Amino acid sequence: MPRLTHACLAAGLAVAGALSAPAHAKEADVSNDPYAWLEDVEGQKQLDWVKGVNAKAEAEIASTPAFKQLEADIRAILDSDAKIPGVQKIGDYYYNFWKDQQHERGLWRRTTLAEYRKAQPQWETVLDLDALNKAEGKNWVWHGADCRKPDYARCLIALSRGGADADETREFDLTNKKFLADGFYRPEAKGALGWKDADTVYVYTDFGAGSMTSSGYPRIVKEWKRGTPLDSAKVVYEGKPDDMYIAAYHDDTPGFQRDFVSRTLAFYNDELYLRRADGTLAKVDAPNSANKGVFREWLTLELREPWTVGGKTYAAGSLLAAKFDDFMAGKRTFDVLFEPTPTTSLAGMSVTRNHVVLNVLDDVKNKLSILTPSATGWKTSAFTGAPGFGTISVSAVDSDDSDAVWMTVTDYLTPTTLSLVELGQQPEQLKSMPAFFDASGKKIEQHFATSKDGTKIPYFLVRPDNLKYDGSTPTLLYGYGGFEISMTPGYSGGVGKGWLEKGGVYAVANIRGGGEYGPRWHQAALKANRHKAYEDFAAVAQDLIARKITSPKHLGIQGGSNGGLLTGNMLTQYPELFGAVVVQVPLLDMKRYSHLLAGASWMAEYGNPDTSDWEFIKTFSPYHLFDARKDYPPTLFMTSTRDDRVHPGHARKMAAMMLDAGKDVRYYENIEGGHGGAANNAQAAHMSALAYTFLWQQLSK
Question: What are φ and ψ of residue 89, in 5° steps?
Answer without folding.
Answer: -75, 120
